[in-house]
Design a protein that fits this description.
This protein is an alpha/beta fold. Helix content is about 40%, strand content about 20%. The structure holds pyridoxal-5'-phosphate and magnesium ion (MG) (2 copies).
Length: about 625
């Protein structure tokens, strides 16, 4: 699938210069957002990993975009005033040795256009629309097999009219290379050509039908370009309302999950699951899994230090992989247990007959770090396992401090970061984590179905000689096999992997730091709401993760969790029961694609439901 896009944005926009004095044409705003950002957001939502923008006129304006979107690169055409779009494209192609979508920057378009190109079986496809009567049309000529032969603004020169050029084209790496060869034959001439005429030229020269550019026509496509004042008014009054209506029709019902994962996802992550069928043993899919692993490694401390091994399975599968694969027969394991997930690590150790000791600590008070350190120093342990964020209560354990100490004492550390990863700032090297687990459906905001085990490469080397205790869940075997074949040993969840690919793209756009800020802003509203309602939180605020909150259930006879749950559900919120044996709580998580206004709405509902606490 195409992963890159090039936006040609060097032009001066001379015909609209009275409106765009100090900005590039693509910075015209429609509905409070610039044209180019409308386009960038659509490309990102469609799984594009990297966007190259060819700049020239007022190139400094694009710096803002570059700092907002890490996936953007800019390439400046210094000679923009004397060249045309082919000159800019040629420079961009120096940065892109890949298949790519080529887009004009002054477009406003419905994202179906991208879908049609991306989903096309053809490698080279040009998007063509029916007649817009917008003036300044570029007319497309085609042969009998819908191949592009010629294009022109002069309609009289067209023999077999296909429609109008939109300005979005998918081209293969080979085709783009051919364009560059043409360009290099006579740079002085070609740099002054429009990129689209060079596409037409190369397409008509090619005799191999697979190397021609296919026309893909949408008769009633909602799109426009903005070259002049009249175009702008058409964009605002006719085209944009049509685009919005189409987008509304594709929206998926939004449930707000306040349970601790699977979390609320974006529509683009949901739609990423609708992908072409592919045999997961094909290299193309192997490359997707490799990309996912490398990007996850970057989020955990850097691909140069960390290996991420994927398994089809939930978070518990990842935990079981880690506990069962990393401890040799003569190892001695200390497990910190201060909640249901610490207890689960111990359960796994017991099933595998490991030599382990549980260190039990309060479920709602901070772990006594010194006591743990004493145990680690004197207990003869070789391994430590603990949960970073105890989802049972929202208690954030001091995993980095304990793990750094453990490593100093040659104890291998294993962290369940299932509900911490991609929200809490983690760097496994800095934090002293040798092995760590997480999953696709929590803070990374993907779908459930993939578990990950992150491995510090140095520690990882040491486990290769441990005999296999199990088969499907064996860490080193899975790793080695993937490295050799680009395949998972057993059938991976293909569509979940594509959703995760999309979720990672979106996490990189938001950044983990900003995501945590968003989550924390939701938590602030929640904790204030809890107070205002007259309820109490189980854990002291300073020890909380700000990702999930355990709230003590009131003793009031009118309180009934199921009723509370069902009423919340009716207005779109899913809340979660408690999981402690020694305290009655319910839990509200604030992870996933949710925003402060969602939490505000929930808090209003909660206050209304619990009115009886105040005798109302
Ligand atoms: N570990 C922690 C800390 C969790 O929060 C969870 C799930 O909430 C798990 C493990 C288990 O994950 P799963 O339910 O995906 O098996
Ligand atoms: Mg035009
Ligand atoms: Mg234009």
């Amino acid at each position: 699938m195409v992963k890159k896009a090039i936006i040609l944005a060097a032009g001066m926009g001379v015909r609209i210069s009275d409106i765009v004095k100090d900005i590039p044409k693509s910075f015209i705003e429609i509905d409070g957002k610039t044209l180019i950002e409308h386009s960038i957001d659509k490309l990102i939502a469609r799984g594009i990993e990297e966007i190259i923008i060819g700049t020239g006129h007022i190139d400094t304006a694009f710096e803002v975009l570059k700092s907002k979107y890490k996936c953007i690169k800019t390439v400046k055409n210094n000679a923009y005033a004397d060249t045309s779009s082919m000159g800019t494209l040629a420079l961009c192609l120096k940065e892109c040795n890949d298949d790519a979508l080529i887009l004009e920057s002054d477009l406003l378009y419905d994202s179906t256009g991208l879908d049609v190109l991306i989903n096309s079986f053809e490698d080279n496809v040009m998007l063509v629309s029916g007649f817009t009567n917008s003036t300044d049309e570029v007319w497309i000529d085609q042969d009998d097999n819908n191949n592009l032969t010629y294009l022109s603004k002069d309609k009289a020169t067209i023999k077999n009219l296909a429609g109008e050029l939109v300005g979005i084209t998918k081209l293969s790496k080979d085709f783009l290379n051919q364009m560059i060869l043409k360009y290099n034959e006579n740079i002085d001439v070609y740099k002054k050509k429009d990129y689209e005429s060079v596409i037409a030229e190369v397409s008509s020269l090619n005799t191999d039908k697979y190397k021609k550019v296919k026309i893909s026509k949408l008769d009633n496509y909602a799109w426009c370009e903005i070259d002049c004042k009249e175009h702008l008014s058409r964009a605002e009054n006719i085209v944009y309302p049509k685009i919005k209506e189409k987008e509304l029709s594709r929206k998926i019902k939004r449930n707000i999950l306040l349970n601790p994962g699977p979390a609320t996802t974006t529509d683009s992550v949901k739609y990423a699951q609708c992908c072409p069928d592919i045999c997961p043993r094909e290299l193309e899919f192997g490359k997707v899994m490799e990309w996912v692993s490398l990007e996850l490694s970057d989020m955990a401390g850097g691909r140069e230090h960390i290996e991420t091994v994927l398994f089809g399975g939930s978070g518990t599968a990842a935990d079981e992989v880690m506990i069962s694969s990393c401890i040799p027969k003569n190892g001695r394991l200390l497990i910190i247990n201060n909640g249901a997930y610490g207890a689960r690590l111990a359960k796994i150790a017991s099933v595998y007959n490991l030599d382990y000791t549980e260190y039990k600590s309060s479920t709602y008070e901070m772990i006594n770090i010194n006591d743990v350190k004493d145990k680690l120093k004197s207990g003869g342990y070789t391994h430590l396992a603990m949960v970073y964020h105890e989802t049972t209560t929202g208690l954030l354990n001091p995993a980095p401090e304990i793990c750094r100490f453990a490593q100093e004492h040659n104890i291998v550390t294993m962290i369940d970061a299932v509900s911490a990863f991609a929200a809490v700032d983690i760097n496994m090297i800095r934090d002293g984590f040798d092995f760590m687990t997480s999953t696709s459906n929590k803070n990374i905001q993907g779908m459930a179905g993939l578990g990950f085990v992150f491995c510090n490469r140095q520690s990882f080397e040491k486990i290769k000689d441990i005999p296999m205790n199990n088969y499907y869940l064996n860490l080193y075997d899975q790793y080695k096999s993937f490295k050799n074949t680009y395949q998972m040993r057993f059938t991976p969840p293909v569509q979940i992997t594509y959703a995760l690919h999309q979720a990672i793209i979106e996490t990189k756009v938001e950044t983990i730091a900003k995501r945590y800020e968003r989550y924390a802003a939701c938590w602030e509203i929640l904790q204030q709401g809890v107070k205002d309602t007259g309820l109490k939180m189980l854990v002291k605020p300073e020890h909380q993760s700000k990702l999930i909150t355990a709230i003590i259930e009131p003793k009031h006879k009118q309180y009934n969790f199921n009723e509370f749950h069902d009423k919340a559900m009716k207005i779109g919120f899913t809340i979660y029961p408690g999981k402690l044996s020694d305290a009655d709580t319910f839990r509200i998580a604030n992870i996933g694609d949710i925003y402060p206004e969602d939490m505000q709405r929930f808090v209003e509902f909660m206050k209304e439901y619990f009115k009886f606490l105040k005798g109302e």
